[in-house]
Specification:
Number of helices: 2
Structural class: mainly beta
Strand content: 35-45%
Oligomer: single chain
Order of helices and strands: EEEEEEEEEEEEEEEEHEEEEEEEEEH
Largest sheet: 7 strands, antiparallel
Strand order of the largest sheet: 1-2-25-17-21-22-23
Number of strands: 25
Helix content: under 10%
Length: 333
């Protein structure tokens, strides 16, 4: 399922182009489980506070009781992989939290320590990566260290932890919660219009769809149909068949807009408010032949992570004019 980000302001829908697995079992609400999570210099109360979604009582309260406090657990890794950790944390402004891979256990990794300075609100420390040289178990450690390896936590400090994530790859993806002993896989995300909805909006008058979004971690934007026919890549048009592979312009954090229409003047598209272009005869979009439409980011074919924040997706039950397409094919104001 696509996930909302929990930042202030507008809530943006995050679409993941590729599946991912959280290797950290008991990742939320189990920090007090000493069999799973080793710790020192702290006491833990699970389910003690509202988590980063602002709704659920999922956060664990961490009270510092001694020096050199830490939380640590073992993760199974495989030689040759890159693994990346992410951690939700909230604590006193100015304190620091460090997440790092430690050469303990039977495996060996190469990694640098990464930390964040706390602001008093929920923060997610992401993209703490390590290269695995031998298979086995390796320690994922959370402590109060800073860039000089000094401990910023003191007795009496109170922090809150929520979901911990460890996954294969060099970038952190959206939250995957492992509540128990089994790892959890998040499948690639689709934003779909149901067959019933398409039947309503694809009458003689056609339809118009506008998408406004922001690329989060690079990659390419795809508007595609169920048979994988590509409708529009950012910056280009394609009308390939079901098995062809095409790539658009890497976005790298770009905000953009796409609007396209079918019926009432043929298939037309505007990208970024640019000139309206007619689709090829072989059809960028043939709503009559499709059971649904999928809109999202995709991988570049070699495993790179691609993520997309959707700011707005609007469907109108009529074919828009050229001027209408250009006005809707813009980034979020």
């Amino acid at each position: 399922q696509p996930a909302w980000d929990w930042s202030s302001g507008r809530r943006r829908l995050l679409i993941e182009a590729a599946p991912a697995t959280n290797l950290c079992t008991y990742s939320r609400g189990a920090f007090s489980n000493g069999t799973v999570w080793a710790r020192a210099g702290m006491s833990v109360s699970d389910g003690a506070a509202i988590g980063p979604d602002g709704l659920s009582q999922t956060a664990s309260m961490i009270t510092i009781t001694g020096s050199s406090a830490y939380m640590m657990r073992w993760i199974n890794v495989t030689a040759g992989q890159t693994v990346t950790a992410a951690q939700w944390v909230k604590g006193p402004a100015g304190k620091k939290v460090r997440v790092w891979w430690w050469n303990a256990g039977t495996a060996s990794v190469t990694a640098t320590m990464k930390y964040v300075t706390l602001t008093g609100g929920w923060q997610r420390l992401t993209n703490q990566s390590a290269t695995v040289s031998t298979s086995g178990t390796v320690a994922l450690r959370i402590d109060g260290g800073d860039e000089s390896n000094l401990d910023t936590w003191v007795v009496g400090d109170t922090l809150y932890f929520d979901n911990t994530q460890a996954e294969v790859g060099s970038s952190s993806t959206s939250d995957i919660v492992c509540p128990g002993s089994a790892t959890v896989i998040r499948t690639a995300d689709d934003v779909r219009l149901s067959a019933a909805a398409l039947a309503q909006i694809t009458g003689a008058g056609g339809c118009t769809i506008a998408l406004r979004a922001t690329s989060k971690t690079g990659g390419w934007i795809l508007v595609g149909a169920v048979n994988k026919t590509i409708l529009a890549d950012y910056g280009m048009l394609r009308s390939d068949g079901a098995t062809a592979v095409w790539f658009g312009t890497p976005l790298g954090g770009t905000a953009f807009g796409i609007a396209f229409t079918a019926g009432g003047g043929g298939r037309r598209v505007s990208i970024g408010g640019g000139s309206v272009q007619a689709a090829a005869t072989s059809a960028l979009l043939d709503l009559a032949d499709e059971t649904d439409i999928r809109i999202g980011a995709r991988q570049d074919g070699i495993g790179a992570v691609s993520q997309l924040f959707v700011d707005e997706l609007v469907v109108w039950p009529f074919a828009g004019s050229d001027a209408g397409l250009q006005s809707q094919a813009r980034a979020w104001a």
